[in-house]
Amino acid sequence: MTRPTIGFIGTGMMGQIAHLANYAQLRDRGECVIAGVTDLKASLARAVAEKYLISQVYESDEALLADPGIDAVICVQQWPNNYQLVTRILNAGKSVLTEKPMVGRVDEAEELVALAESKGVYYAVGFMKRYDTGVELAKQLFMELQESRELGALLAIDAHCNGGDWIQNAGTPISVDDPTPLPPLQPTFPDACQTPEQRAAYHYLVNIFSHNINLCHHFLDAEMSVRAAQFRGDRAMQALLRCGDVAVTVRGSVSAAHEWREHLVLTFERGELAIHTPTPLNRQSSARVTLLHREKSGFATTEYHAPVAWAFFREAEGFVQALAGQAPLRAPAEKCLWDVRVMDRIITVAEVF
Ligand SMILES: NC(=O)c1ccc[n+]([C@@H]2O[C@H](COP(=O)([O-])OP(=O)(O)OC[C@H]3O[C@@H](n4cnc5c(N)ncnc54)[C@H](O)[C@@H]3O)[C@@H](O)[C@H]2O)c1
């Protein structure tokens, strides 16, 4: 499969701005084919198809999945829809990319990972930060530092997200005045989530911090364990984790600001690697990477400038390349399953006040 054929289930805001717009560019470069789109709001699907010069609008996800010409589906949904839709997509024998978080429960995630494996298809989760050029550069530096021991042992990781304006100037998605009622979302939760407060805290955790937990796993390449956690409702959280002898903190709060404020700091015995990940929908920025290390004259901070590229666009390129057998997936579901397990443990041990 050198030029994979892709279908889209869901043409909402992120489906349009962060995904379809990028695949349309890849199609125009001759790297994939877009078979068509579908949305429960048929008039939205038609308007979006017209904008992106897509000739086919399927009447339902079933109709799209019945098309034998489609190799893979980009399914961008509110997360409670992921489990049902991904089950159908994988059972149809098609590869899939969904947005994060993967699903609400560990047993659902395990079932889907096993299903994808049994069908021999790709299952990718939209942790686009793994494709950010700054993150890529930092991961390379990190691996070199682990090898050379130049800064000594890795002691701790601090993953922090205070959020802020995540859209900035990304443009306005098409919206239509379509009265079609959507079925109510039916989120599923870990067993420990019994109260509305715990469920709100879990939604905050999976919606925001799944990214930060996923990035920790990306660097550590091993699953973390959870020691303690607390949530101030769905406005602030802190979790203490561990991976071997590395202490990990994941924390943040909802605090208004003009841009996204998020970082991952890896602290070594004799220095520090810091990655400041950018506003998600800003196409013109990549993560800023700094390295604190000792030079002859004393400690110095080096700032690295990775090529400017949009992580969402590179994620689309990466998915198409994986489908074409040219590169491995960078956020395969079997690795993202680690995040679902860790988030289950966090909410299970957490104090929510
Ligand atoms: N990676 C990031 O940084 C980031 C940032 C923001 C949001 N997100 C993720 O994006 C997702 C939300 O995406 P969105 O804004 O496009 O959502 P949305 O609600 O705007 O769009 C979903 C669309 O899917 C359609 N739909 C629902 N069920 C369907 C079905 N069975 N068949 C066809 N269409 C169906 C709906 O009508 C809707 O138009 C969330 O999971 C969120 O976590 C990720």
Q: What count of structural domains?
A: 2
Can you tell me the CATH superfamily of the largest domain? Dihydrodipicolinate Reductase, domain 2
Structural class: alpha/beta
Distance between the termini: 52 Å
The main sheet comes to: 9 strands, mixed
Report Rg: 20 Å
Mean pLDDT: 97
Shape: globular
Low-confidence region ranges: none
Pfam families: GFO_IDH_MocA (PF01408)
Protein name: Gfo/Idh/MocA-like oxidoreductase N-terminal domain-containing protein
GO molecular function, one term: nucleotide binding
InterPro entries: Gfo/Idh/MocA-like_OxRdtase_N, Gfo/Idh/MocA_oxidoreduct, NAD(P)-bd_dom_sf
Report on the structure:
There is one protein chain. The protein is of the alpha/beta class and 353 residues long. Helices cover 36% and strands 25% of the residues. The chain folds into 2 domains: 5-127 and 314-331, Rossmann fold, CATH 3.40.50; 129-309 and 339-352, Dihydrodipicolinate Reductase, domain 2. It has 9 helices and 14 strands. A hairpin with a 2-residue loop joins strand 10 (261-268) and strand 11. Helix 1 packs across helix 8, helix 5 (106-119) packs antiparallel against helix 9 (333-349) and helix 7 (196-220) crosses helix 9. The mean pLDDT is 97. The structure holds nicotinamide-adenine-dinucleotide (NAD). Nicotinamide-adenine-dinucleotide binds next to helix 1.
